[in-house]
């Protein structure tokens, strides 16, 4: 427990407090998008758009941190031979991943809270406290499967390959799942693909909760399937990596 | 005495290429083993197998009577890899605290800090430290768990001469404290000073396993060197019990198994011989010579 607590403390310093990239990228980009589309380029949009787009940008922030920040941190720890040290120490990799997960969930909460503060005090979105909390909690919980994908990606090759893969995945996923602009504006094939993505499922669930409509069991099932897929991928990638190293 | 490490008939192949073949040795508590061999001899592979990071193709390795992958033995092991490890945006002192937290009976923080010998640089971000500073920090981290068994793979690479001297002093102290240490180094004269036993790897096998004195006895030659104004042909005609190793201006170096005989052969011209010196080969010289053989 002492090892886990110290690991979490160190992760807080290195992943959040001393990481300007986190402030600029994970928090700054979604916040900027939100302000841009709700205060500057919002002509002809219905009043409900500010609320819907808040959900989209909250999920977009979790996508950025869960895939890009996670993959980069795990990759850096691998490159710095830290994971190899973990393997010869009494601490297990699951402890390392869990400690990183705790901090990344915290990071996700901070990101979403900042966007919510902008929505409330700058854009003027009005909702009950339950809805603000629902966005915060649901988007954070849903980011777990994305984080597991982020860890898996870190083991898929060199730094260049991982960075390329991360960018190739994150931005198309954001666009196809309707986080940047409504899915209905996209061609049919893109809508079909988009509706299968985990970020779309999260968006459906969060919007249904805050609009007090029936919660889609399909979307919840979709989230569970994505979590299982992510866990299977991580297990397989770790297995391949260990087999390669040990053989 | 029960062996801490048992390596039994271990072989390792990578892509059909033999790296190590039929390696056997035991390590008793308190021994300091100098693992030597040229680059690519399989030293790091052998260490990685002993740590459970790589599996042998054949054979068996046990540490404290258990498989190297066993979690229960990790608490007793300290490792300093050839490549220093670190973490982005973490200070040296924080990394020490983090690694200490991994072990059930760690050394006190102040003691680990003393081992790191980083002074004010202890609060520097690990990734901003110089190569030598990171090596010193990695040694302290290897010791942070107060291990019974310590693996040091090229520990002094990148350290300056003073740091290397201090490092080996610390190793001597650890040896006196009864720690078991496996060390590889390119600075063979350093291993020579600390190792109680040498394991010499060559051509995928253990070429020699025993005390340094035995290695010298098995492989060494005595060196007879002197200055003389006599021409090389005349010196060569005098000496039959030694091989001329080098002749530079007036300085002659002979390698022999019988130094007394060489001196006797020089006697007729002893008036023309100055600065006569007889020395045993160092581990470094033996190493270079044995490595050369068969290459």
Automatic annotation (TrEMBL), chain A:
The chain crosses the membrane at residues 21-41, 53-75, 96-123, 129-149, 161-181, 215-237. Keywords: Membrane, Transmembrane, Transmembrane helix. Pfam families: ABC2_membrane (PF01061). Residues 13-200 form the ABC-2 type transporter transmembrane domain. Its main location: membrane. InterPro entries: ABC2_TM, ABC_2_transport, T7SS_ABC-Transporter. One of its GO terms (molecular function) is ABC-type transporter activity. It is a multi-pass membrane protein. It is found in: Membrane. One of its GO terms (cellular component) is ATP-binding cassette (ABC) transporter complex. This is ABC-2 type transporter. It comes from Lentilactobacillus kisonensis DSM 19906 = JCM 15041.
From TrEMBL, chain B:
The keyword DNA repair does not apply. Keywords: ATP-binding, Nucleotide-binding, Transport. GO terms for molecular function: ATP binding; ATP hydrolysis activity. Residues 5-228 form the ABC transporter domain. PROSITE patterns: ABC_TRANSPORTER_1 (PS00211), ABC_TRANSPORTER_2 (PS50893). It comes from the Bacteria. Pfam families: ABC_tran (PF00005). Gene3D superfamilies: P-loop containing nucleotide triphosphate hydrolases. SMART domains: AAA (SM00382). PANTHER family: ABC TRANSPORTER ATP-BINDING PROTEIN. This is ABC transporter, ATP-binding protein. It comes from Lentilactobacillus kisonensis DSM 19906 = JCM 15041.
């Amino acid at each position: 427990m002492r090892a886990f607590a110290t690991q979490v403390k160190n992760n807080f310093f290195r992943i959040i407090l001393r990481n300007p990239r986190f402030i600029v990228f994970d928090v700054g980009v979604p916040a900027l998008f939100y302000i841009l589309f709700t205060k500057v380029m919002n002509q002809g949009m219905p009043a409900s758009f500010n609320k819907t787009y808040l959900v989209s940008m909250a999920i977009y922030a979790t996508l950025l941190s869960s895939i890009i920040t996670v993959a980069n941190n795990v990759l850096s720890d691998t490159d710095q031979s830290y994971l190899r040290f973990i393997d010869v120490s009494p601490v297990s990799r699951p402890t390392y991943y869990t400690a990183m997960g705790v901090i990344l969930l915290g990071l996700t909460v901070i990101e979403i809270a900042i966007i919510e503060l902008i929505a409330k005090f700058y854009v003027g979105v009005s909702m009950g406290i339950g809805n603000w909390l629902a966005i915060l909690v649901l988007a954070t919980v849903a980011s777990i499967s994305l984080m597991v994908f982020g860890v898996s990606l870190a083991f898929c090759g060199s730094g260049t390959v991982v960075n390329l893969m991360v960018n190739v995945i994150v931005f198309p996923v954001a666009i196809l799942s309707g986080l940047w602009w409504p899915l209905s504006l996209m061609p049919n094939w893109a809508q079909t693909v988009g509706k299968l993505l985990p970020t779309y499922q999260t968006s459906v669930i969060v919007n249904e909760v805050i609009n007090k409509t029936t919660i889609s069991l399909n979307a919840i099932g979709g989230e569970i399937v994505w979590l299982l897929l992510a866990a299977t991928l991580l297990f397989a990638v770790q297995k391949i990596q260990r087999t390669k190293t040990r053989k | 005495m029960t062996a801490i490490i048992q390596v039994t008939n271990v072989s390792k192949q990578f892509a059909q290429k033999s790296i190590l073949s039929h390696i056997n040795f035991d390590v008793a508590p308190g021994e300091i083993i100098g693992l030597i061999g040229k680059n690519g001899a399989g030293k790091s592979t052998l260490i990685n197998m002993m740590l459970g990071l790589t599996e042998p193709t054949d054979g068996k390795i046990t540490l404290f009577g258990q498989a190297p992958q066993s979690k229960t033995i990790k608490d007793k092991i300290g490792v300093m890899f050839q490549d220093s490890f670190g973490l982005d945006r973490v200070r040296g002192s924080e990394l020490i605290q983090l690694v200490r937290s991994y072990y059930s009976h760690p050394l006190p923080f102040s003691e680990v800090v003393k081992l790191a010998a980083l002074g004010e640089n202890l609060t520097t971000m690990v990734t901003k430290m110089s190569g030598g500073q990171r090596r010193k920090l990695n040694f302290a981290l290897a010791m942070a768990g107060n291990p019974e068994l310590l693996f040091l793979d090229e520990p002094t690479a990148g350290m300056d001469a003073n740091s290397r001297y201090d490092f080996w002093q610390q190793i001597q102290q650890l040896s006196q404290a009864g720690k078991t240490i496996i060390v590889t180094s390119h600075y063979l004269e350093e291993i020579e000073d600390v190792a109680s036993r040498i394991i010499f790897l060559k051509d995928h096998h253990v070429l020699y396993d025993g005390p340094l004195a035995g290695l010298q006895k098995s492989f060494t030659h005595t060196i007879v060197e002197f200055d003389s104004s006599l021409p090389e042909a005349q010196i060569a005609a005098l000496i039959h019990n030694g091989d001329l190793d080098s002749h530079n201006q007036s300085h002659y170096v002979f390698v022999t198994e019988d130094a007394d005989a060489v001196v006797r052969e020089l006697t007729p011209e002893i008036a023309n011989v100055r600065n006569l010196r007889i020395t045993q080969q160092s581990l470094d010289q033996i190493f270079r010579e044995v490595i050369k053989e068969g290459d």
